[in-house]
Amino acid sequence: MIENGFTALPDLAVRSLGGSVVAASDEAFAVKENLVNPWAPTFSPGTFGPRGQEYDGWETRRRRPDARGELGHDWAVVRLGLPGVIRGVVIDTAWFRGNFPPLASVEACAAEGYPAPDELAGWVEIVPRSPLEGDRAHFFPVEVERRFTHVRLNVFPDGGVARLRVHGEVVPDPRPLAGLTVDLAALENGARVTGCSDEFYSSPGNMLFPGLARTQAEGWETARRRGAGNDWAVVRLAAAGVVRLAELDTGNLRFNAPGWASLSGMDERADPGRWFPLLERTRLQPDLRHRFRIEDAPETTHVRLDVHPDGGMARLRLLGDLSPSGARALRERWARLGGG
């Protein structure tokens, strides 16, 4: 049960994945950093501060023509937390009703290393100048098949935007991964959840996020199962590899952790649909990081986590080695999408 459409893909710009608004033309009324907040925009009417009504978004001052009669426009630059191929952008003007921009566009660029905002170049338009409405999320598919590291939101001429979501597929730089033990299930390395039985409370994709979950909402949690069977999620690994160590973290899940869990692997290239055991059904404890060595595992492209009968998992780590073919596939994809 994974949602269709580009919004099912991770938000590469969200703050919880390392996204940052690194520059803006103006933020007189509401600060630029709000654009990448992970939560849905909120609003409390009648809350006035030194900058006016407080908004959970980015809002610029009213523009006036300069001495040459030019009005110009406002912009904000976001460094993606996870670089990748952008499949769609959401520009959300939630709660901005009389102060939203009538038009907006989005550009993107790819940069090596750690450039300052004024060193970015090679901008490519990925969303043409398009009309916006107030208090509404606007969805724009993107069809540019390239890896990007930064995006620039342009609003014409001024106004407020609550959130900018940049959904896409993570494309890691393969060079730091070569020859090292890596987390084959990490979102930042290119892994992705491709299917699950249930995501009633929260998405299974959360299990692949970096860091520790701070609350139970930051992991995966299913509804209470009343019938037979068990819940499960399938992870497509960052690339083909051999899993050496599995970490199943039930952190913060004190009364809703699974009783047991198991792991299965599949090599989709050699025998799609045939699952083999990696970790037999094993008892779990609540609010605990469990670590299990995986002995003599074959090469794997997908891993299925089964939780018995239901419950939640904060994080899933699968440490191991990229196979030669997996490392080669990462390098080839990186080069095809514009990597160095």
Describe, in short, the structure shown:
GO terms for molecular function: allantoicase activity. The chain folds into 2 domains: 6-170, Galactose-binding domain-like (Jelly Rolls); 175-326, Galactose-binding domain-like (Jelly Rolls, Sandwich).
Write the layout of secondary structure elements.
Blueprint: E1 20-24, E2 48-49, E3 52-53, E4 58-59, E5 74-92, E6 103-109, E7 124-131, E8 137-141, E9 147-156, E10 160-161, E11 163-170, E12 181-183, E13 192-196, E14 220-221, E15 231-249, E16 260-266, E17 276-283, E18 289-293, E19 300-308, E20 312-313, E21 315-322, H1 324-336
Antiparallel strand pairs: 1-5, 2-3, 4-10, 5-8, 5-9, 5-11, 6-7, 6-9, 12-21, 13-15, 14-20, 15-18, 15-19, 15-21, 16-17, 16-19
Protein name: Probable allantoicase
EC number: 3.5.3.4
GO molecular function: allantoicase activity
List keywords for this structure.
Jelly Rolls, 1 helix, Probable allantoicase, eight-stranded antiparallel beta sheet, seven-stranded antiparallel beta sheet, single chain, 340 residues, mainly beta
Model description:
InterPro entries: Allantoicase, Allantoicase_dom, Galactose-bd-like_sf. This protein is mainly beta and 340 residues long. It has 2 domains: 6-170, Sandwich (Jelly Rolls); 175-326, Galactose-binding domain-like (Jelly Rolls), CATH 2.60.120. Helices cover 4% and strands 41% of the residues. It contains 1 helix and 21 strands. The longest helix is centred in the last third of the chain and has 13 residues, at 324-336. It starts with 19 loop residues before the first strand and ends with a helix.
